[in-house]
Amino acid sequence: MTTQPEQVLENNLISQLEGLGHKRVTIKTEADLLANLKTQLEKHNKTTFTDAEFNRIAIHLSKGNIFDKAIALRDKYVLVKDNGDKVYIEFINQDYWCQNQFQVANQITIHGKRENRYDVTILINGLPLVQIELKRRGVEMAKAFYQIQGYQKSSYSYNNALFNYVQIFVISNGVDTKYYANSQKQDFKFTSFWSKADNKKITQLEDFSALFLEPCHIAKMITKYIVLHQSDKALMVLRPYQFHAVEAIIDRVKNSTKNGYIWHTTGSGKTLTSFKASQILTNNPKIKKVVFVVDRQDLDDQTVREFRAFDKDSIDGTDNTKMLIKQFLDDSRPLLVTTIQKLNAAIQKAKFRNQIERIKDEKIVFIFDECHRSQFGETHKRIVNFFTNHQLFGFTGTPIFEENALSKASIKQTTKNLFHKRLHEYVITDAIRDENVLKFSIEYYNVFKSKEDIAEVKVEDIDKQEVYESDGYIETVANYIIANHNRKTHSRTFTAMFCVSSVDILIKYYELFKAKKAAGEHRLNIATIFSFNAIEKGKEENGFIPEEDFENLDEEHLGIAAEPNEPYRIYSRDKLDEFIEDYNKQFQSKHSAKDGNTFLTYKKDIAKRVNNKQIDILLVVNMFLTGFDSKSLNTLYVDKNLKYHGLIQAFSRTNRILNEKKSQGNILAFRNLKQATDDAIGLFSDKNANETIIIAPYEEQVELFNEAYKRLMAITPTVDSVNDLVTEEDELVFAKAFRDIMRLKNVLSTFIEFTFDDTYMKAQEFEDYSGKYQTLNDKIKFNQQKEVVSILDEIDFELELLHRDEINVTYILKLLAKLKDANPKEREKQQQQINNFLNTEVELRSKRELIEKFIQNNLPSIGINEDVETVFKAYWKVETQKALESLTKEEALKQEPVEAIISDYLFTGRMATEDAIIEALEKQPSVLQRESISNRVTTKILDFVKTFINGVD
Predict the structure, then answer these.
(1) Do residues 67 and 199 both lie within one domain?
(2) Contacts of 504 (CB under 8 A, 6+ apart)
(3) Are 332 and 408 in contact (CB under 8 A)?
(4) Which end of the chain is more exposed for a tag (fewer CB within 10 A), N or C?
(5) CATH value at residue 395
(6) Cβ(151)–Cβ(112) under 8 Å?
């Protein structure tokens, strides 16, 4: 026997769990599950229930969706006993998590759409809270993940829906083991390995179980380290490095009065980590206040929103210093979020200081976000001198070491100097290895080699500002960006930022982009934001405003206040007003920079529109290069010198995980940053980490693609040979091989020099195999509708990798116009071209039937002087209305709320909540029907958007 059978893996796991302290119990049916639940709840609550009393508990537990059940698990239930007495029933002990009842069962069978048997279940107080799905060694873990998704659709929500109480899923093939939180929407990308505090991964099932599934630990993870994300109605479980960081902070507070800092790389989820640390610390009776400190007003608001998303009642923002004082003195508010500027005003201005002195001797824990930016000036000294019983903790993705420290009075202040011990680290190489952030693709464009007048000058030898500020240089860079933006962003599927060296240069670039758009040279949406304070000019360090200037910014005006007697400030202020007016015209808004509050509102709106992909390129100097997270941003154009933490922070705006299509963060540099990049990587990971952090260059990517092509040819040497694949196993092998091709092509296509001529595969050949691949996926969808189990269900076809925005309805309309006027000889050829696009382009496949209907019924009757686009849009409008009316009629929906849901989705990119979907129904369903109806209606709305709206304009 070459591989360990799944049954052996299951038996060994159960024996191990028994040894760890989980009591073995035999549960085969839902009736057994309920009977065991009654017994365990009686034991846990030290009482007994009559059948009628337990029936009331069972009805209570059956209500709601996954998120509702997670809340119910953590709440106590008021049971009215048969004699009229009221007692509180606890489902899990959150304060003393080891004091719960732990059991393990296997092969529990639940009947839903079909009968499902689950591998291994850990029950706590009788509720199934951990579900483990196993596959034999050698099988992809993804197979177990997709099998759980199948269970969620076919049986978890049926009958009493007790398996919707699962908090954590574990998937394993024996060699690799991962975990993730239960939620209605899941993605294999967000599964995690467990690791020790040194970030060494624990992959083997036996080793994982010994640590993670030990009764006290798994109960602690469920009760302390799962976060209920209120706004998304989803469960989130901390990743191991987040867990270890919070544990280190809690231990530091419990056992010392010393400070400490957490070094977790950008994009690793520091907000969630700091929220959980703050939340747990507020439960410590010895701590008067936990104060979470950020260094800008917009980050204050952003953090408040994120904290509220985790727990809507956890926090109130501090609108001004007066409000901060009020909350400091309010004993009902243990957790505050504020800015370093407000905190500084609170302890420095006499009218505030006199009030806050009442609590200066109380135990206060300060947690500083992005502490590499805000803790190196006088404000830090004032805080530690004023509060006599403080403890400080800093979070940073890029600590300040001696190499990247600013000198003050010949003294270099480092993060270690201020916060003492590093309590936990998780650097960029760790995050990339764990696939929690993306690698970078860095390309350099030597402007000077393209300009005849300075052809002999090397980029690295140039240190003359006038060259970088010349009109010829700026126009060359702008033209290059316009020419290559579609390639870098997958045809504007993603967005970009362009950072430049000064406000003067930004103004030149902006006005050039604006003029070129007016001249019809591009159709990109360009926006900008900058401070017109003089600190923007000539006082930058590492590409950022110096830390001391952050502290000196006017609290209310956020660094944009200007003195009228300085020409530079007046000029930049006027230009900012002008550019904001352009923005208002573009988006029908009414923003301004007349004061700090309106400027902040403008800044927030820009952030939202970048996230929603309404802005193609955001032009900046320093703003948004740190602290700004946007999953939809994948490209950074760089025309400024960056180094150390400034470089890593700026690059890291591009590397957030989103989907398969976003395979890396793209950096296109117009300055020679090679040595600066090497130095930064060496400082913040190690000097040999380049290959880990930066993807292979173009030539190596081509080699990888060609090797994958050879593997595909060995399986299906011609396109037609795909038709001859006999078994589903053969089809699975082909699907995986072509998926590798798609992934590599997705990376290659972002390189400016990419052409299929450099590869063994021809462009048409790729399209032909794409059609076969998608046909295979259509077959799987058909089988799923017929509830036919298929081995192909176990892989993600990642069709988004075939999506090309340039081949959309607008493009097809151009072909239809040609088809209308074509002679008979050309007509057949053009018809075939259109058919090929309709069959192979992901964007168009959902629209194929409608477009074919238009070609057959409408196109022949269009007059000589009629415009195809005008006729098509009228046709499309009628069909869209018909489809919307059909949808609302089929599902008994009110049309106006449905239109509002669609409109909100198109603007925000976020689908309506289950409650909003249910409210749109003409008639409210029962509690047990809510989830299935909501899921069905959501799917239909998304299909409607995909067919009638996406890719039409």
Answers:
(1) yes
(2) 469, 537, 572
(3) no
(4) N
(5) 3.40.50.300
(6) no
Band the pLDDT of 437: cuts 50, 70, 90.
Answer: very high
The answer to whether residues 485 and 634 belong to one domain is yes
Query: Which tens digit of pLDDT belongs to each residue from 377-421?
Result: 678 889 899 999 999 999 999 998 988 887 665 567 888 988 999
Whether the predicted model's global pTM rises above the 0.70 cut? yes
Residue 794: its pLDDT value, please?
59
Based on the domain organization, do 677 and 596 belong to the same domain? yes
Tens of pLDDT, residues 689-716: 888 899 999 999 999 999 999 999 999 9
Q: Are 66 and 153 in contact (CB under 8 A)?
A: no
Residues in the chain: 953
pLDDT at 625 over 80: yes
Residue at 882 is within a domain: yes
**Cβ atoms within 10 Å, residue 912:** 22
Whether residue 411 lies inside any domain: the answer is yes
- Given pLDDT bands bounded at 50, 70 and 90, which one contains residue 84? very high
For residue 696, report the phi and psi dihedrals to the nearest 5 degrees: -60, 150
Domain count, the chain: 5
Mean pLDDT of the chain: 85
**Is the domain of 194 the same as that of 305?**
no
pLDDT, tens digit, for every residue of 334-360? Answer: 998 888 888 988 999 999 999 999 999
* Domain co-membership, 257 together with 388: yes
Residue 626: the pLDDT is 87
Name the residue range of residue 838's domain: 809-948
Helices vs strands, H then E, count in the chain: 37, 26
The one-character DSSP state at 292 is: E
Residue 523: φ, ψ to 5°: -130, 30
Q: Is the pLDDT of residue 902 over 90?
A: no
Q: Rounded CA gap, 906 and 916, in Å?
A: 16
The token duo for 242 is 């987040």
Helix (H/G/I), strand (E/B), else coil: 390: strand
In the sheet with 177-181, reading across from the earlier edge strand, the strands are 23-24, 102-111, 115-124, 127-134, 168-172, 177-181
Q: Same domain for 687 and 751?
A: no
Structure confidence at residue 449 (pLDDT): 66
Q: Is residue 193 part of a domain?
A: yes
Residue 550: its pLDDT value, please? 32
Task: Pick the last residue of a domain from 798, 823, 858.
Answer: 798
The CATH number for 714's domain is 1.20.58.910
Whichever domain contains 154, its CATH number is 3.90.1570.50
The residues facing 290 across adjacent strands are: 335, 365
User: What's the rounded Cα separation, in Å, for the pair 583 and 713?
Assistant: 51
Tokens read off for 909: 């990119």
Contact between 31 and 162 (Cβ < 8 Å): no
Residue 79 dihedral angles phi and psi, to the nearest 5°: -95, 125
> Does pLDDT of 126 surpass 70?
yes
Do 835 and 717 fall within a single domain?
no
Kindly indicate the confidence band of residue 953, based on its pLDDT and cuts at 50, 70 and 90.
low
For residue 126 the two structure tokens come to 């009788």
* Last residue of one domain, picked from the residues 204, 227, 250: 227
Query: Which contacts (CB < 8 Å, 24+ apart) does range 914-917 have?
Result: 914/65, 914/233
Residue 448 and residue 412 share a domain: no
Give the three-state DSSP class for 554: coil
Give the pair of three-digit tokens for residue 321: 């210093």
Position 57 confidence tier, pLDDT thresholds 50, 70, 90: very high
In a domain, 636, yes or no: yes
Of 188, 191, 176, nearest to 137 by C-alpha is 176
Mean pLDDT confidence for 292-316: 64
In 135-223, the DSSP E strands lie at 168-172, 177-181, 194-195, 201-202
* Structure confidence at residue 787 as a pLDDT band (50, 70, 90): low
